[in-house]
Amino acid sequence: MGNVLCHVNHNLEHTAIIDGQETLTYSELRYNIKQLANALPRYPLSQKYGLVMDQTVMSIQLFLAILEKGHAVLPVDNKQTPAEMSRIQQISGITTWVVPTQKKNTNVNLFERNERMESESCHNHDHMSLYTYDDIYHHQHQRTEAKQDINHKDAQPQHVQAQPTFVYQLTSGTTGYPKMACVSLQTIIREGHVYRSWFQYAASDHIIATIPLHHLYGMTGALFASLLTGSTLVLCRHPTPRKVFKLSETYRSTILLSVPSFYPLLSDAHTVQQKTFQHMRFAISAGGPLPQHVSRQFKQKTNVTILELYGSTETGAVAAHHPQRKHLEGSNGFILPDVKVKIAKDQSLVVSSPSLFHGYITVDQEKEGHDRTSDMPGMMKAKQWHKTDDLAVLHEQQLFLKGRKTTFINVAGRKVNPKEVEAACRTIPEIVDVVVRGKEDQLHGEIIVAEVILSAYKTVREMKTALRKQLAAYKIPHQILIVEEIKKSWKQS
Fold this sequence. Notes:
Distance between the termini: 47 Å
CATH superfamily of the largest domain: ANL, N-terminal domain
Strand content: 25-35%
Strand order of the largest sheet: 2-1-10-9-11-12-13-14-15
Largest sheet: 9 strands, mixed
């Protein structure tokens, strides 16, 4: 216990989180985390949780409560389809899931028999458990009168509590299906301090987060950095320019966190004026390259500077613009303190950082490029250096990205593996061959294009409808082209 609460110890009457009309003070947040942690099922600390997050205050509190209890957790967004949840389950082997109450029925195929379902990958229990937000919320009231019994038959032995707490992050390799990257809670907290120190967060800041908090960028740059600073986090779910403008004016917001594709929408909105962001100190962009013309246009329209940050799930934050330092034109930022980088012979960026992840978990438990460690059963400890798929050059301790080797498609900051989309396309009987690629797009950064060869007639609309059962909305091809032959140069290696 005490993994999170010791870092939520600021002015307790100060507002911690705002979600629409709902506000939560630091005092209320501390109390709720503690109560929810006590209400969680009494599993050994080796039990891992899967948490479907809908970006609400409750989902944030449950995430923090699981960490406070000392359990590992895999947070995923609530846009996953049942088929994707099944694939995630196959990779993770997690046997205890917490989902939004209204989403329980959409996961019925995964939790068909609820707590009776057998799981081959389960090591600590012989069944799968499904809980909703309401289950945990109501359970806390039933247990407030009972103290924690350290002699409970499911209580964890004292010595096991020394094990690190992990947050699993879904990511993708250059081939195959998504993996789980293992990041320690200590690393998450360190990354929060990196944002707090580098960008000079203050307790008086009101930080608008338009980004999903289950991703490392939102988790560290928005949630933990805000909690560590004692500032106010303003949630913006399903962001639109109108929502951001209203939140900025209502709460006199001072920092905005978003992805590159959202800033052109803000700049192009007819209602944007300099007074809309008159209290804004700066904005932060991460999750993909930010075109220089977008930054210039946003500055011209709003008088707000966008500070770019580069990093990854595997490395944490690597480089960033500074609020008070002038960077070179075209630079992606200064190399951050305690981070070391070098350029490989093939121009790939190689990173060493205190925030390096601890390794991957895949469906077949492959751990390419990582070393075994005896204190993490079934895990791999990361090497001292991590080679990225980004091509880069260094000049005056500033990073200049030149492209990527990977086959990822970057759709508005979300990384899509084309092989996963291709596999989903092949489940459609009429598709006999398919190749999926990315295409540059001014709004999204890239869009997904699928070229298919059909054995029988099927409309594009019918194919997209079938794919919606397999893939989240942002993974559905924007264009499906029916062709007689697929160019060899577009075949994935």
